[in-house]
Hints:
With about 500 residues, the chain is of the alpha/beta class.
Amino acid sequence: MEARVTAHARYTIADIDKRLYGSFLEHLGRAVYTGIYEPGHPTADENGMRRDVLDLVRGLDTPVCRYPGGNFVSAYNWEDGIGPKSERPTRLDLAWRTAESNQVGIHEFADWAKAAGTEMMLAVNLGSRGLDDARNFVEYVNHPGGSYWSDLRRKNGQADPWNVKLWCLGNEMDGPWQVGHKTAVEYGHLANETAKALRAFDDSLELVVCGSSHSDMPTYPQWEATVLEETYDQVDYISLHMYFENYEKKTSEFLALPEKLDRYIGTVGGVIDYVKAKKRSKKDVRISFDEWNVWYHERRSDSKRMKEWDWPHAPVLLEDVYNFEDVLQVGCILNTFIRRADVVRIACIAQLVNVIAPIMTAPGGAAWRQTIYFPFQFASNHGRGTALRLDVDCAHYDADIAAGVSYLDIAGVHDADAGTLTFFAINRHGEEAMTIDLCVEGFGKAKSVEHTLIKHDDLEARNTKDAPETVVPVKANGATISGNGAQVTVPPYSYSMIRITL
């Protein structure tokens, strides 16, 4: 099979916000406890944080991390996680039917984020709580001193404010499963009033309002229209969430799901434009896609177990062990975000450690990279710069979710500072190799090309504690300079990163 891809320096989409490669940690399962935090672990630092996990997180170079939820935040009292650890209460978390010890709170997470080289993206509880608690939390986190909450922070050991700029106004408030679920009108009014209060404190904050939990919600996309009409003047982003499933084990259908993702983004982008026009506004609201990942391997069994257990602390929950097929899907999802970089400015893989995550740990033992670690790492490390509007000529197939799905899923990024063009390419054909002709125009002469490949003959191949390098990237030898571009042959069902030095 042959594919022709043309990249021209004049045809660009947008400069990519580095926060497109954000992450997420929720007080859920083992994401925090025995994930990032495990006092007594051989690698634990003075704060009880696992250094082996920190090393793997730094390898992803994720610029922002969303915390503390997720569904968890909708019944969370942030004050429970401050002050002496011996005095912190244990609470019952209604979202995941577990016990929360509150041994990790805002101070511990802030120290971890600094060590990990990531900025905090904090969520406030607009489920069981509201405006007053949100403004108190922001004051505690961001005010230098001389007020009740800022002085309490100083008393608790943090003299300087953390100056967190990015705040989420609740989580998935359209979902009936959410503690404090609201209608679009109810939530829009509360979010708007909360945003106004936070802006009265600091108008430079970046605020994220809740959009639909997924595009199959019965209230979608009217939810976005109603909420944005209530909040447009006060917020900067609207959040979207989407998870990807393959219960039927049909790879071609699974890999077509990013077409649905693209429509989701396009529809909400259209709603934003509609509300902007209706309000005669000059302001742009963008999308924060702050939950996304493959999630189905353990989902049904976990839902059943949760109904049976009796409030355990940090149980094994949502610990999908990802396979090679998921590498291809995650690559396609990231490519979609790059191609929509004009409207999707922030995205957070859900989650970072143990819970549907690229990093796994054994309590007291090793930490290792799941298969999906690598496409995320490549995009985060090399997908920064300007997203390119590519012309792609390739055979396609029809799927249930969409017709005309290209066998080649590809995104391109120009890093002017580094003098490189990077292409992330997924061959969605299961039987045929693909020769890709990359025609590069307007960038100058191509000096060299490097091809990194992720490929395994078994779609079910996984990285585990005992076999952590079953699926890993390798340097390939099939790429050559061709004219002002390159030619590369990629095998069936494979992920490739192709980097041209200019």
